[in-house]
Fold these 3 entries.
Entry 1:
Amino acid sequence: MNVPQGRRSSTFTRLLRHGFTDPSAAERLLDSDELSPLRADPVLLDALGATADPDQALLGLVRLLEAQPDRTARRELLDTLIASKPLRDRLLGVLGASAALGDHLARHPRDWQALVMYEPEDLHPGVEEFERGLAGAVDPVSLRVAYRRCLLSIAARDVCGTTDVAQTAAELADLATATLRAALTIAQAAAPEDAALCRLAVVAMGKCGGHELNYVSDVDVIFVGEAAEGADEGKALQAATRLASHLMRICSETTVEGTIWPVDANLRPEGRNGPLVRTLSSHLAYYQRWAKTWEFQALLKARPVAGDLELGEQYVATLAPLVWQAAERENFVPDVQKMRRRVVANIPAAEIERELKLGPGGLRDVEFAVQLLQLVHGRSDTSLRSGTTLDALKALAAGGYVGRADAAQLDEAYRFLRSMEHRIQLYRLRRTHLVPEDEADLRRIGRSLGLRTDPVGELNRAWRRHSSVVRRLHEKLFYRPLLDAVAQLAPGETRLSTDAARERLVALGYADPAAALRHLEALASGVTRKAAIQRTLLPVLLGWFADSADPDAGLLGFRKVSDALGKTPWYLRLLRDEGAAAQNLARVLSAGRLAPDLLMRAPEAVALLGGPSGLEPRDRGHLEQEILAAVGRADGGEQAVTAARGVRRRELFRTAAADIVASYGTEESPAEADAGALVDRVGNAVSDLTAATIAGALRAVVRDGWGDELPTRFAVIGMGRFGGHELGYGSDADVVFVHEPRDGVDEQEAAEAANTVVAEMRRLLQLPSLDPPLLIDADLRPEGKTGPLVRTLKSYEAYYRRWSLVWESQALLRAEPVAGDEDLGRRFIELIDPLRFPAEGLGEDAVREIRRLKARMESERLPRGADPTLHAKLGRGGLSDVEWTVQLLQLRHGWAEPGLRTTRTREALAAACAAELISGEYAAILDDAWILATRVRNAVMLVRGRAGDTFPSDGRELAAVGRYLGYGPGHVGDMLDDYRRTTRRARAVVEELFYGA
């Protein structure tokens, strides 16, 4: 039929105005014979324009009309469509939102009549109504058809706004319940002898159990079986397993009518490796002995739905006491939070921004936060024991466990995100939680949610806004009411009771909840701007403190820093506005004693935590320049060295803070994976800082006693770890001193001056003060403690020529000038090079002497009672083992291999491997052991605030060492096992390479 151009133009414009994206195709469909009676009806066009996708709705309507068996049936559908607005809205609404249900209607063209009824009982059907709807199903195929017919009515109420998202989710759960019952009936009818042998209960878990199911989701279940009266238990369980397996296949298998949804029984004890069906007593025994924290969390939603409901109720009642004791388990909160982080970590990077359910700010964040609070407070408050997320959130707010405003925002965000999820799944009836990228899909979803002006733009903005609310609130939800418990609230606000607040703090790992509440009250009470900012910061900080081994210390440290800096304008602003600063501070304050002690002596150093550049170690040149400038401004030697030690304290804090942050990781950046890089960074930073401090002390002493020039040239030579750039936080500075009288100066005068300088430097660097002392150890000098403290270069030359022992040659491997006269230092190194890298290497006698010394040291120097498998310095496979092995290689082959002529252990080990003096496998084993032992010593100093070579005996300190080394809560045993394994392998290499075993 030819259509006049004017009419086509008018219709085309009307279709565009009603939301059609392909008006030409829509015109052709409207001109089809099937729609000829409605061609001129404006009501149809208005109804199509109100749908999520008018083009899809129109196409679906034409397909449905074409599928009618005859003209009479087609006429009946059209007449009802024109006369009944409820049918028109429901049918077109479903066709516009779901291509899958449009396909179903095209295959089963009489099912549109399921949408005609509009009685009050149809508005909110329950399990009974759905059971009636499925009653005729006798096999998997007919069950699928009946299921889709019921789903039509749910979708129709949903897209028309008759039910909200929570009601829709409840209806979907009720339909799933009816479907499981129908599937079990079919399975029992197929095997009546199995049905007679056993009692089988189907307990819904997850979203089905929580009465909040999606359109397409795995239906999580647990099966409980018991023998029927007089039946053998073993045979009964076999029968129950066959029935359960058949039920799962009926729902999950793909037939000509597709599938319903997968039935997932993996939440059962032992997961997919455990028996499909267990008795109630077997379930109880498992949960009492073996269950993990997440398994109790999953039981929050357990609900009997099919089979023997009495047995199902017994199951829930029997396990309920265990569920509500879960919060008393060690590391309860960290376990739950770690589970959440693991879920996020497993999302492919390309999908994380589109992941509606599992991504940051997604549905799972709300669900985890709510479940965590339920488990903590549901022990004493039974009103919180709901399996439905929104009902539980409402109860938490009513009880004061969550702030009302926070709860209202989360409720709104959760409803919006669930609505998005429903619309995404409804389109193809496929299980997905990814927001589509195609603009047509986004347009359909936006329109289905009532966003009509700019559906795609409005949808994206709303989604990001709600996701941001969830991301911001889901962790604070747990901590903010703790502040309300101690702060002044607005009239009418419900607060967390003191007992509930203590309960929550204990669950978080606080050993002294009463003290923690006092700190919170001191920080957050009042109406000042300072208190208001603290109330904003503390919910997040409390979470970060709880993620450490010592939350109490973290909170106490934060109070001390805040008391010291609270009146400075920049402190709270830094924590509030610089995202990294607050988390970095929380990590530093709760990781041990050393860093907080350093910070408390000069709290303004907290400014270093504001960004990555603040934690970068400064090079030796800049450090020396700053220290020498400070020394130059000071009056007198004591004031000068005090200034140098102040710089050292600040830089030690910078180094320790950077080490802690890199070891723990932050929300923005993961923990440093390369442990060797962490060790090298600390070793270089502390060694450079020590060298610069000694240079400053030397300058101060010389200026105070002699003015610009000492009567003798003077150099400080770093030895041991200092010379090797491997100092730890608790290391002394091993040195030797060398001098050379200036021209025309009497040797006696020069010697007195040099000895005076050494004595005064050591005194000033150890003076009692707020700053940590720097201990100078000169015991590696010739003749050890009995020899002169300082010698001339000629004296060293004479001594080494006549008296030098092999251990002294070994000690000189680490010698490096660190301060004083550079030319004298260089000449000292030229003097000792032939000793430490002897031509043609060590003789066999010297090798035997080194081995003898090492064996003697192992037997005599290990402290009495120390565990040799856990002593980081002198124990099996520890620092001493690795270093003596490497140094023996240097003494034997350094003359021929330039790469071995280094003071650094790891560099020498790599050079030995490159020269094929040691295999790559052996080099890696020794390197791993050395790095681990070094990190253990650093960790002990950071945690305890004093040096140590063994793991702490105190449980909390041991856990803190574990956190620094990357072991989560509850994995201290794994840490010790790994340490023993690593060092045992290293010792085997040492036995072969060093002792020649």
Note: The chain is about 60% helix and 5% strand.
Entry 2:
Amino acid sequence: MTIKKTASRGILTDMFWPDVPSESGRKSLRTTLHYIRKAFHDFPVFESRKDILTLNSELEIEMQHEGGDMFKDLFIEDCPEFSNFLYDYKGSFERANYDELRRKFSQKIEGCGEKEAVVMFQELKERDPYDESLYSALMKYYNSHGRYRKSAGVYKEIAELLREELSVEPGAELAALYKNTLERLSKKSECARNTWFPRNAELERLTTSLRNFQRGGDFSSFIICAPMGTGKTALISRFLKDAGNCGIVIRITCYEAERDSPYCVLNQITGGIIDKIQRDRVSMEGKSYRSLKFLMKYFSFKNRGANAGQIDVLDPLSYRHFVENNRQLLTTALEHYKIILCVDDVQFMDVPSMDFLRKNIESYSGGNLFFLFSISAEYSADFSKIHYGLMKNRRVEVIELKNFSKAEIQSIIKSRCPGTVCEAETIFAETNGNPLLVFEYLNSAGQSRELYASTLSALLNTKMQNLKAVQRQALSLASFFIRRIDYAVIAGLLGENRANISEILDVLVKYGFIEEYIEGDEICFRFQCESFRKCIYENQSVLTRESTHNMIAQYMEMLDDETGSRDDEILYHYQQANNRPMYLKYRIRKLSSLINLDVEFPEFISDVSAGYINEVEEELSRGNIPNDVRYEFCLMKGSFEIKTCDYSTGIRHIKQILEYDSNAVRQIKAHKQMVYYAYQLRRPKAMYPDIIAALNLIKNYGIEEERADVLKLFAMYSILVGELENAASLLEQSRHLYRTKKLSNHTLYNIACILNYQASIEKYQANYPATLKYYVKAISICEENGIMNGLSVFYTNMGQVLYKLGRQGQSKEYFLKSENLYHSIHTNWSRALTESYLALILFNEKNYHDSAAYLSQSLALADKLKNLYESTYNYCVARTIKREISCNNEAARHYENVLREDYDYYDQKAESGFRIMNINDLKLRLL
């Protein structure tokens, strides 16, 4: 009754007196109710309406949890009603008890200490770890005490839990609270940053020009030239703070360690523009910005070694695609937005990015680009040759920052530090007027600390004397991270928990070594001055640096997830540690992710990948590399060669894995490459043994993560041999397994592939209208998630079916979409088929000139790819056009150098292909 508040007399009688006559049971119930009323001094506990008992609404009921269970040993045999009651009772009691504890938590948390608040929170979290109201209450508590970083940490905890275990995002209320927390933290961080230098004149020059730029008037761009420590980075920060949200604002810092990483800077610029375009949903019709997100991972292959800056390793066609796409993107962005581009320490920009920027800034004469570059004075002579190009079509002013004079130091003391007893002359003598040293000198004087440092190294040593041992260790480790300090790694290496490392970082921020900033929805840390990081790092011995880089890489491997999000960082640290085997292992792993061993379609930009592969192979040839690394390379290279139609060489490399390697995972992947090879050539009999071998390895070694993919391959085989029911079943099994996996682009790609193969099942039954829904879904998944693998194939397949259904106009649209990808990304897969169909459509439209050009290209590509399916349909198109031009002299002139054989030749080739593929029924042929 305390749970449901109401019950019928019949239910209560059957529950408590099931084995007695009905009348006796009712009598016992009346007696029991009498004693309950007496216990409440005749208070009307129950209200009775006919046969229904209801608890009095004025009766106050408080449920208390004493840690026991009063029904623990109570059992009524053959009474399911009582069992149901117990189930309802326990569930409702626990919920009511939890609600009461949560109410008390919400009331008490405002006035209690942090330790008590956390204890109460943990107790409740153990009962319901998904209750967002708990996390909200603790976040509000931390925010009220100015502990914004801890508040953000609480949000991250629940967000990660919900994503990993329930695949959902936090609710709107909690997300809004987190956003507010980040805003308050950002304001706090801005206030904490040093605004110590009197660079008002320089700042005024910049902001005046910016205002003119924003209003569409005459303006200048700027180059800041300054020695180390004179405040160029701080000046840029102040300037950008005043810039607000004007169009697209991109700030990039170049680092010496990334100087040999081609396209590192360009990819950051491209990423910033693409993010803005996607947020604003700006139309990019005719542009291929989606392909750039795919291409960027190829052209930002960091830490490639000695040849990193060599552009000649890239295939000119692929290089042209990438650069042209970036140029189109920048041009389109400048049509829609005003762009402010700030690059700090431009002397360390990689050469390909600098070449791109110089050429495009030189050629752009519009008023929507404002740039601000900074350069260290010692590099200004090397940079001077670029100045001319930048100034060609625009006004560019140079701001030179110099050390302070004695008079300027005296002015600073009066305006900022009136209580300081130091004389300007003394400070000038100690610091030579260097703004960074002046500020540190004055700051230490204000804190009653002595500081006598005329060099950066001496300054840092003096500052570090104020730190505890663990804080110095954390600072030393932080210097190993170029951009963002990975404090999770630092915490792990120091054996500190999240709370302790947060306190350590607070101290380092307080003493001005590092600063806190917000990037997206992440709280990040970086060195306040790159010179600080570099000096602390270089003051450690070479042996210490190599050992520490190695430890960092090993710990990152432990933290790394399936996405490989830390692979670039791991690669960098192993390279700096001079650990060749592990460095090569991660270079191969990176290449494998680009080539994608788990994708059945040939990969993109093959010539670029070939350049990287050759470099790795050269390093492997130097010896002293474990067999495990060599086998990884062999698998990756074999996969690449099969995907680029170098079948004999690729098979030779794959067979080395199958014959000599004992690693089961590599064995499965090697069998998959053999299946891809057989599928490309439409040889189903050759697919079967490798599929069965892979499934046996999965069963014997428990490698279940590969099962979904191999079942998909089994379905592909079943379709080719006509076992369509089995194929449908296998695809459903594969799709179910993929839906249980963590959501990623690879998972989405495979779901799109499954939809494509489900369409194939309908196609092989001549049920063409039914295929369209599958193709539409597959294409939608790829387009919405920026997935390039397979998309050209899906466009082409859709175009084929639409043509078969007589919808030539729509068919042409999809073939043109597919062709557009080929102009953006260098790939031959399904290109021959696309171009042959476009040749046919243009022939139907009497555009014989372009039709002949397409057909010529398609026949050459089909011969290179050696794909039976594409070749067969190419010959189909060729025989159709050959037949039609026999009575059309005008058309025949355009094809005389394309279709040199007679009609019977193309007819026999097409029919031979259909016989091999077992497509003899004319209804099953798309042409």
Note: The first helix runs from residue 9 to 16.
Entry 3:
Amino acid sequence: MLNRMNLEGAWSLQLDEQKHGLQLPFEDSITLPNTTSHARKGKKNTEVKIGSLTDEYAFEGFAWFAREVEVPEELQDKPCFLFLERTRVTTVWVDGEEMGTQNSLNTPHVYDLTGTLSEGKHTITIRVDNTNYPTKGGHMTSEDTQTNWNGITGRVDLQFYSHDYLENIQTYTDPVKKTVTLTAHLNGRWDAAQLHISACSSNTDIKHTVKEQTFQLSSNNVSVTYEMGEDAQLWSDLKPNLYELKVELKAVSGEVLDSHNVLIGLREFRADGDKFTINGNKTFLRGKHDGLIFPLTGYAPTDVEEWLRIMTTSKSYGINHYRFHTCCPPEAAFIAADMLGIYMEPELPFWGTITDETHEQHNQAEQDYLIREGYAILREFGNHPSFVMMSLGNELWGSKERLNDILKQYKAYDSRHLYTEGSNNFQFVPVILEEDDFYCGVRFSKERLFRGSYAMCDAPLGHVQTDFPGTMKDYDEQIWPSAKLDDGDKESGNQSIQIQYGTEMRTVQAETAEEQLIPRIPVISHEIGQYATYPNFKEIEKYTGPLKAKNFEVFRTRLEAKGLGHLAEAYFENSGKLAVACYKEELEAAFRTKKLAGFQLLDLQDFSGQGTALVGVLDAFMDSKGLVTPEEWRTFCSDAVLLARFDRYNYEAGESFEADIQLSYYRTDSLNGKTLKWELINNGDVLVEGEMEVSVGQDLNYINIGSIHTQLPSVTSMTQVVLKLSIAGTDIYKNYDLWIYPVHQELDWTGTHLFRELNDQAKELLERGEDILLLPDPASLTHSIEGTYSTDFWCYPMFRSISESMNKPTPVGTMGLYIDNKHPVFESFPTETHSTYPWWSIVMNSRSIVLDDTVPKLQPIVQTIDNFERNHKLSLLFEARVLNGRVVVGTFDDKEIAHTPEGKQFLNSILQYVKSDDYHPQIQLQYDELARLL
């Protein structure tokens, strides 16, 4: 390139919502790069969106941009291109002459203006249309993510070249031979030029400069191999060593005709059996979903600095992989990922059905567009070492043959990346195609699940949602069954099934496989987690751009209308603590699974749309929500994760505690001879401890360190202990909370008036000033919500609606407990304010009654946090004065939980409380009021 004329700055603007055409003169202006919304152009939007953020200046239609440029004499009639880095559907005019239309959503629009720009002033006019897309666009155009903005973001410039220049430069690295093969097309005379290539490391600890090499050209199609030398350093997520390749096209006289700087990394990312390898070493993908959510601007940043901030934060939480849901980020994201060592997977902007010509709704134009987008992504970003994978879309259906054919075309075109048919394609009836390099999904049949949580409409649910808590679960048997599994009354052949499709329900034709699906390629678990937290209303003030959190404002108003506004912060914090615990088990189950190649979280950050899915430990701005530190999160999400395998968290005094200690390990440093120390600690005091030598066997990535066998102490009160694991001389450690309970021979109900329902006898006792303990059968409670331990999946409003449309059970929708842990009822059952594992059996054998119509001052001792749509005041345990007596109401199955040490301890603590001098309910309820609750 000879010269770049920067066109950033002031442009004339005209908004044309009705698409009438350009009406001169222009009446407004805008500074580009920008979007019309971010610049606050047009009519202010008064709509209030509940399921997503609200764009206050949302605009759809034509936006016309124009500016005058002056071309100096030395550049006139040179090959010239208008470069628009990121935009929508554009049409360009120069001095009124149309130059064409382009519609890539993922890659720059580059217009050839050669021959149109003589010396002097010219007017460039650009029309941007954000309505007439060849495809819906997935998260490239969704209001749920970056919005359907209109404008031009990133670089806007004119690029001038000599009459001999290179285009479509592609680099193919060989980390074994330590060479780079460069291909390009030379426009101009090949026999009058030479190619000069040099390289220098750009971010390595050890500086490495590679000498310049000169290549004689033999045609306009350039292909040369540049030797980097034995000292060349390789690129990986652990050591992201980069080189800047300087490529110069020179005339025989030495004049530089064209020059390019290309960022490269020597790497080979491959699928090897059930794992991925980087330069021959196995790696495990610790991924996150990304839908291009940027609430301050409403569009994806195009500067490297912002992407470095974002991805450095992700890296601090152990992430080494990004899957972009139906979108591709700008080049700045790839550069940041190159620098930090993050494996990138862009995805075609499609979420639907890929058909062939036999389908009645086949849309060949849309399909051709999507295929072109894939080629454009490969050409534009394929040189980046971080770009290692590509997906054809999200949750696709349709023609398996057509999908396989598209994969085959891409693999033949560019072998630098791995390819998959899509993310979670065919849902309940998955398939692995011949050309798939890896598989990304959530199940291999209805029952063969390999993630920990699911929506109710996709039941069965996952083990985090339903199973007795312990740390034994892995998915090896589900991924690679040791015997043929029976999936019940599954029918073979074609059948119509209902599926979740985005935020809606859709009926599709599903072809059931005759044989059990066994993967022979790496398997990635798709969109794992999705554990929701209550909104943090303090976040509202952070929305200073065009996007406003009016949904948060509505949720806050709803909560206040229920008289619960004062509990908003407690709901947020306590639901968040439970979500972190759910994520810990979710992630550890993935790391325990030897047959898994990686996972993709949904998500590390909140998702602003699709009903408002606050599933992150970071907010939508990628700022911490204060629920967990990066250091703690990395103990269960990193390249070295210690794993204690034990069957439960709750024990009786004197029981034997047994745990196998394992390590998921993807570092290059050997741990042979290192020492693992384990301790059981209570309030800083070491109760028992031991050591084991780390001995690495044949499996370098799953290390069985040893086993713990110890007798737990004979405690006289409920005691929380911490199992602490650490490997000396490293940063590898892990903590688990365990609970030990004194042995109770039997519960002492003496002197307690226990009732299962309100009846005349109970009323008579209360009238006489006696106390009763009311423990109704949870199944009898008509105004109640089912008890479930795990926090809500994704977003209650969205999946309630989908379940209803599919005539399936709706989600429970609750978000854990908020416990008044200073209350004297917990004298013998000390607890946090949030859900912990002593509560699991209690909650799972309960129903929470709805207290919406009671006096505001009646606050449950143990409250179940409801979602932001219903906002019920839900009680698991409350007390009140009724008539002349006192009553404690618990809505759990005491007979069932009495079989567990934690349940027995809980009941014992309640019985002690109702007989104590501390029993002082503050709120008076009418007898009829209490009766109505039940």
Note: The first helix runs from residue 304 to 316.
